């Protein structure tokens, strides 16, 4: 499979460079990237932000420069992007910036903080190949390769090549109808429920939502109050009934964490006692556990599956192989929706014969 990827690994590339390396952005993402730079003994010179966002900040003891100040000081330099974006305006700005300067967006996994490296890919190449060969169409395979090329090289051009519209998935792959019973694991504030409502034009059987974070759960109940047939559970999705420690961050990245507070988790098989047509999972790295916890529901009803595959480095192969292990009656599609870094890498599994 390596011959299909054929890109220069990011960290190997940067070790050989003599140009100044500047971090674009500050915060937790930048901290994680600095740790990787230190591991590879790669020096970085400064941090900058877009001209309108600089307010006398300091980061790691250095004054944060504006882009214009960075260009005046260094002329040309290598940019390491350290934050996530998904709005169209900012992504267009990133494209423009990558024309002015050599730009990379390193991939650091959401859960655990480890970088995605060429060495990691080589160690697991056969698993990636097995997953790749299970994908159902040529677009899935080409997008999958481009995401791997991006993850290894850090070049956003490969990620942009893989981007596809999410709403088209609802109509062309999931083919949502007016009799859907949907289980939404990791419902957040109802953002995906609103997408389901839009895709079905408000005509569905029922939506059952799991959300463990208390603050998110309150938002979920408030923002779905006007919708019909919504059943909400203030619990997390897992493979069995269990009390886990949970980091309640009140945002998209809330997840099971030993530094958190006790929260109830349970499985789809234990909670849902009716025919299900779609299960969605965006649960910050707990997707493997939740799939196992939905085993009986999947075997009985063969629902469509919508599973996020970007929280852990192994998700791109492990979740595909897990879905196939649960049932080989699925066709598995891969789509990358607009996001930098490669968040919104999603798997869509459809019963054979339905698409």
How many strand segments? Answer: 18
Q: Which strands sit side by side, in order, in the main sheet?
A: 10-9-8-15-16-18-17
- The tally of helices reads 16
Overall domain count: 2
Radius of gyration: 21 Å
Largest β sheet strand count, sense and barrel closure: 7 strands, mixed
| CATH homologous superfamily placement of the largest domain | Vaccinia Virus protein VP39
CATH architecture verdict of the largest domain: 3-Layer(aba) Sandwich
Regions with little confidence, pLDDT below 50 for 5+ residues: none
- What distance separates the N and C termini? 28 Å
Structural class: alpha/beta
Given the C-alpha coordinates, what overall shape results?
Answer: globular
CATH topology of the largest domain: Rossmann fold
Beta-strand proportion: 15-25%
Average pLDDT reading? 93
CATH class of the largest domain reads Alpha Beta
**What helical percentage do the residues reach?**
25-40%
Keywords:
globular; 7-stranded mixed beta sheet; alpha/beta; 355 residues; Rossmann fold; 16 helices; 2 domains; 5-stranded parallel beta sheet
Fold blueprint:
Elements: H1 2-5, H2 10-15, E1 21-24, H3 28-39, E2 46-49, E3 58-59, E4 62-63, E5 65-66, H4 67-74, E6 78-81, H5 88-100, E7 102-104, H6 118-123, H7 125-134, H8 138-153, H9 156-162, H10 166-172, E8 181-185, H11 191-199, E9 206-210, H12 214-223, E10 230-233, E11 236-237, E12 242-247, E13 255-256, E14 261-266, H13 268-271, E15 278-281, H14 287-293, H15 295-301, E16 304-308, H16 315-326, E17 330-336, E18 345-351
Parallel strand pairs: 1-2, 1-6, 2-5, 6-7, 8-9, 8-15, 9-10, 11-14, 15-16
Antiparallel strand pairs: 3-4, 12-13, 12-14, 16-18, 17-18
Helix pairs in contact: 7-16, 8-9, 14-16
